[in-house]
Amino acid sequence: MKHQRKPRKELKVAVTFSETDKPSAYWHHGEIPPVDVTAIRQRTGLSQSAYADSIGVPECTVRNWEQGRRQPSGPAKALLALLAKQPNLLAELYPSPQPRRRWAPGRPDPNTMTADERLAEVGEILAEAIIRSQMGSGNP
User: Fold this and answer.
1) Taking the model in full, what pTM does it have?
2) Range 37-93 has CATH code 3.30.70.420
3) Using CA atoms, how far apart are residues 135 and 129, in angstroms rounded to an integer?
4) In whole angstroms, what is the distance from residue 111 CA to residue 72 CA?
5) pLDDT tens-digit profile of 90-136?
6) Which residues contact 100 (CB under 8 A, 6 or more apart)?
7) Measured distance CA(44)–CA(13) in Å, rounded
8) Measured between alpha carbons, how far is 116 from 119 in angstroms, rounded to an integer?
9) What are the sequence ranges of the domains in the chain?
10) From CA 55, how far away is CA 75, in angstroms rounded?
């Protein structure tokens, strides 16, 4: 007994036309100029690896662009054209996170403390308690 395929369902499309003479959307076709990836990256002062991370592509992609083996296309080319005009654009849009401050005695912030910071706090409290108990008992 042969297995019969189910008939495919046909796609039905309804199209509506507007009576207005104004288009609902405009298409802008423009030519994006060629970009010099090496010059753009060097203006930012970043290494190939750091630059690749900042624009969201693999490091080998940036290396291939710079060595001429490949050319950026589509969204990458548009992004690089923007970065050619404003090299610090990514830094402005996505600032690097501020380094976390380590806990300092007298200023614990339990809302932002990491597990390591809490452990360090407990260690310092215990060390102070041991030192105080030794001083109070006459043991130096």
Assistant:
1) 0.48
2) no
3) 10
4) 44
5) 778 777 665 555 545 556 566 677 788 778 878 888 888 888 888 76
6) 112, 114
7) 50
8) 5
9) 37-93, 105-140
10) 11
